[in-house]
Amino acid sequence: MNRCVWLLFRLLARPGPSPRHAGAVSAAFRSPGGLRHPSRAAASSSSEGNGGRTPDTSLFVPLHVQPLGPSPEGDIGAELTQPLNKSEVLKILNKFYKRKEMQRLGGENGLDARLFHQAFISFRKYIMESSFLSADVHIILNDICCGAGHVDDLFPFFLRHAKQIFPMLDCMDDLRKISDLRLPPNWYPEARAIQRKIVFHAGPTNSGKTHHAIQRYLAAKSGIYCGPLKLLAHEIFQKSNDASVPCDLVTGEERVLVDPEGRQATHVACTIEMCSVTTPYEVAVIDEIQMIKDPARGWAWTRALLGLSAEEVHICGEAAAIDLVTELMYSTGEEVEVRNYKRLTPITVLDYALGSLDNLRPGDCIVCFNKNDIYSVSRQIEARGLECAVIYGSLPPGTKLTQAKKFNDPDDPCKILVATDAIGMGLNLSIKRIIFNSLIKPSINEKGEKEMDAITTSQALQISGRAGRFSSVFKEGEVTTMHRDDLVLLKEILNRSVPPIETAGLHPTAEQIEMFAYHLPDATLSNLMDIFVSLSQVDGLYFVCNVDDFKFLADMIQHIPLTLRVRYVFCTAPINKKQPFVCTSLLKFARQFSRNEPLTFDWICRHAKWPLVPPKNIKDLVHLEAVHDVLDLYLWLSYRFMDMFPDASLVRDIQQELDNIIQIGVCSITRLIRASEATSVSGAIAVPDDFPLQRTEVNDRMLNLEDLPAANREQFSSATKVPGQKRVRGSKALGYKSAEVQSNMKSHGQGSLAARLVREGLLTQEMLKQLEREWQVHYNNNGNFPTGERDNQNGSKGTGKKK
Prior knowledge:
Elements lengths: L1 H12 L8 H9 L7 H6 L32 H5 L5 H13 L1 H9 L4 H17 L5 H11 L9 H11 L6 H7 L10 H4 L4 E6 L6 H11 L3 E5 L2 H13 L4 E4 L4 E2 L10 E5 L9 E6 L11 H10 L2 E8 L4 H11 L3 E5 L6 E3 L14 E4 L3 H13 L4 E4 L5 H12 L7 E4 L13 E4 L3 E5 L5 E5 L2 H8 L12 E5 L2 H12 L8 E3 L3 H10 L5 H11 L6 E3 L3 H9 L7 H8 L8 H15 L6 H8 L9 H21 L9 H20 L1 H10 L24 E2 L5 H10 L9 H5 L2 E2 L1 H9 L3 H9 L5 H18 L6 H6 L9
Helix pairs in contact: 1-8, 5-7, 7-9, 16-28, 17-27, 18-19, 21-22, 22-23, 24-26, 26-27
Protein name: ATP-dependent RNA helicase SUPV3L1, mitochondrial
InterPro entries: DEXQc_SUV3 (IPR055206), Helicase_C-like (IPR001650), P-loop_NTPase (IPR027417), RNA-DNA_Helicase (IPR050699), SUV3_C (IPR022192), Suv3_C_1 (IPR041082), Suv3_DEXQc (IPR044774), Suv3_N (IPR041453)
Keywords: ATP-binding, Helicase, Hydrolase, Mitochondrion, Mitochondrion nucleoid, Nucleotide-binding, Transit peptide
């Protein structure tokens, strides 16, 4: 009787015939009866034949399968056969792993070399560490040990285990379908249901292209304006209501309904991420369409362009986007009418550089590409008795507007502006001359990597175009550089043609990620996003936007128990991951949310240590800007989880107060810099690591390359090198002194003293050069160092003899 039961188990246990050769095993697996799920095995075999991308299997994170412990029912396999000799089993498993036929068969079932190895390690550990095995596996192993079976017979059980630790192998076809991004126009049925009129207003900055589109927007019965910045949305919001066209405002952090009863107005001005693709409009305006290529935000322009349900869609931006927009609209069956515009006022590239801040005049704007240079240049300007306004990206919108108003006011003594490229959009400024302090700008490429390179032609034109705007008091604009040897490069950049934009950005939606999670319930959100991007298929007109910031936040809050949809929303929060206080705040928000405890006004006040006081130094100012961002984050989340972030109006009130406090700090920024210098070592400004300000100012340069760690000098120099230049232009353009100058300064014993005197305005560069020439003459005539220098050069071994 036991023998019959044993035979019955052997018949039931085997998923298919017991082939002796790999060819037979392969055939059995491809036959209808060879697998328990033959259709799925075939589907998950590879991407060949279905047009899918070969997945990046390094993203497949194996799940842990716990070895079986002792069973109260006993070891049925051992009862039917005999206990296994684990040393013999180990030899069998290792033999199985080494067989090329098994590796090839694994490849046919979706297991490349990496996955095959990981699956085998897990399978071997499971077999060797389990107190007992399922009857079918035990019987097969016993047969092989006794010579009644072949090592290849293990493959069905190995594959079953591999699919346990890599569940994506069993649903690869479904995952590919979910991540198929080849037909984005089909995602927007409301827009496809109507025949839209597409008008492209193409032209440079200050050509009136947006003005013409807005006039059509104001004349329509209903309309939506989509811009890249809150400041632009606010501008159109105010302009519409001033023109007696009721208009609402919608940004990520703010909703303003002009109707006192709360009804929606016929017009809305919004940031582009917030536009509705289901609401019908007569006219839609999409501003700055060239940003459709942005590695992080390009998807928002693609969504608006393909999805806005408007009878007329007016697109404004660079002519470089015309061909791409035309092709995208061809895929929707819509024609594009192109209207070209020319600049309304002339702009001239000067033949001379500024050379010195002593040559500044009213209406000048010095453009820097990092906050450190903003601090340094503004400090030097005020040391010359001039007032300057300051604008950079991390300032609150209210502070930016206040500084712009101060600079534009003809009755205000402030006639100089120091700004980053934040002035390129969203602010109306009365600038006569743009002066590039540097032509090197840090940027993030499509892979999410930071690069230091010369600004692009598009960026140079956008910034230069702010000079001599049609609506300003200056009817002609001028452009130059701070340093003479940058001027040649600037002219070269501006003379290049802007390369055509070739692709539009896409981003996985929450619904797509949820469907992924249904098939891969144990994967982390970051891993889901990685696999999605790896499997995604796009045609030649699109690219998948960079998701590094999303993954950074996903990893940061992974340990907090949240639903997938809530986790996804938190990860799309627009925060700067380089600000530690903002990141920790998001973490605390998520933790509080997971406990189902509302984040009240009192809670946020305790967290931000409200009330706050005006900053005493630059570090305080940077922290206040971070607190403002945290309040922005609260407001952003309050519109997505109103019950958990219930005090948006109160938070907005203190955010306005904080904006005023920051304005006080920015208005006295040079005092903050001096205070920072006084409390730091060797005149270095004490601010967080994101803003290393250990700099000296000689010849308007700010950081010595020698101050960098030795391992970083060569890397930094090569990273900032601009092709075609003999010298490392990057370091010079960024305001760094040459090593030779620094060496001379140190040898003269003037490093810190000279820097301090220059900073305080008591010593100019010309005076410093004169002192250097006098020192050199003294050395040439006498053959020795001036008094006190000799010991510095020769140390304790110094004597009175000539060298």
